[in-house]
Amino acid sequence: AQSVTQPDARVTVSEGASLQLRCKYSYFGTPYLFWYVQYPRQGLQLLLKYYPGDPVVQGVNGFEAEFSKSNSSFHLRKASVHWSDWAVYFCAVSMNTGGLSGKLTFGEGTQVTVIS
Amino acid sequence: EAAVTQSPRSKVAVTGGKVTLSCHQTNNHDYMYWYRQDTGHGLRLIHYSYVADSTEKGDIPDGYKASRPSQENFSLILELASLSQTAVYFCASSAAGTGEGNQAPLFGEGTRLSVL
Q1: Of A64, A69, A110, B73, which has the fewest Cβ atoms less than 10 A away?
Q2: Which pLDDT tens digit goes with each residue over B63-92?
Q3: Do A104 and A71 touch, CB atoms closer than 8 A?
Q4: Residue A12 belongs to domain with CATH number
């Protein structure tokens, strides 16, 4: 069965510093991968998505992620963090069989705290 | 604008009572999903649907029923609510098809359910 691991439950970063959030997946085959962000008491918003192709994908608000098949990873990066990036970030994987891209397996999430 | 709307946004229910959570999408998506989020954890799939009048079990279907009376509407039903079903519930929808042209699932704002 597919699974997603986000090894860092909490990350604290200074405003203006760079950010990397780790995501490891377990899946037999070619995965479809997503990063979502959840602001307090809100739903999930898509940051970026990976479908088989270029391993580096660009997302919204300056986020990017890099897919590595050899490392089974899909790490999220941002060069310069803003206070508005304070949120919970979820990595998710989909088999996308039969077009079911919404049938996702989520990681536990990483809480990002931004300090000045 | 594409949207997934959930109602109610929050609800307090009594143990043993019946609860119905509703979801409406204006995205013309074929697929709809119900996820559950427990505090400090990722989302888990409860039920999903390919088409109106048909539902499928997800990863944690016990204690829940689903109903898809039309393409736009998808309900989650707790016939006998229990304390362990206190959580935030998210509805999502996605387009059919695979590959780059397929959109990532869109999520609603969530319904916060407390069972007392």
Answers
A1: A69
A2: 999 999 999 999 999 999 999 999 999 999
A3: no
A4: 2.60.40.10
